[in-house]
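Give me the 3D structure for glucan endo-1,3-beta-D-glucosidase.
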Amino acid sequence: MTISRLFCPFLLLFFAPIASVQAFTGTYGINYGRIANNIPSPDEVVTLLRAAKIRNVRIYDADHSVLKAFSGTGLEIVVGLPNGQLQNMSSNPDHALSWVKENVQSFLPGTRIRGIAVGNEVLGGDDYSLWGVLLGAAKNIYNATRKLHLDQLVQISTANSFAVFEISYPPSSGIFKDNVKQYMKPLLEFFQQIGSPFCLNAYPFLAYASDPEHIDINYALFEPTKGIYDPIYRLRYDNMLDAQIDAAYAALENVGFDKMEVIVTETGWASNGDQSEAGANVTNARTYNYNLRKRLAKRKGTPHRPKNVVKAYIFALFNENEKPGHSSENNYGLFKADGTISYDIGFHGLNAGDSSLLSLKVP
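Predicted structure for glucan endo-1,3-beta-D-glucosidase (363 residues):
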């Protein structure tokens, strides 16, 4: 999280609007990050996820040990094409085809791979060399799925951070940055043609931590509050996540994509952090994730888009001890590295005195 397109003409197929592929079939999912040297094995993770009844999972690569462990489990997974491979995939359709064969097709149908996230937080990011190759990579990966007859099974997307927005408050003012827009619009046109959503990494925690003097902590945590009033929409918001999602909808509408769905691909709250990271503690992390789980279970939309049910992948499954950056980066997990819960939001881990959950075989 953060704060010229080359393709082969004979592989670029005619993109007519098609029926939307649904990579996310529920409302609650989780990100299974693995930048750690002490977390449970993929087989143990499967047991943990099934016991928690979490079916939708995202990973940031296409690790074969994970994909093998997920086979036959009923878990639905979105794999990731890392940013470091975008240039290669954009310039070489044959490499894109090989990647999809090796990392997606070869695991189907046993492993329910439902999506490919092409890059992560590319637009608005620090590596400008990737901005211009993202669309080409997405097209070549899509063409590969189509050539392999997987395009109606596997959804293509990319996750965006809040760095793509120039303005996001109030929600009705949401617009993309000018330097992002020239890359974003063609990408959105392509995603609209193939039925993909706009994927957003949304962190009320980061917003609060950046300005704790002016942001009501209760508003960020889904706790009772007067909230904010948007005078253009004439709507009141009682939590920040809804406002962030509607800011994304406003930005999409501003560039002509008023029918595109917004899905939250990351959201969470750190249970610990540096002294400079206001609000990073266990109490707030539990409150945010507990209230978020309740909010998603209601299967309702946002004030501006009440019919678009909010769907979100929580960040993250585990605390990851090898992630660089602020201390918060190591403390987003709902579970600790040993499989015990970081705090209680209704899931069961390796609680003291209980038998080991990870030793159980879940049917």
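The mean pLDDT is 91. Let me know if you want a second pass.
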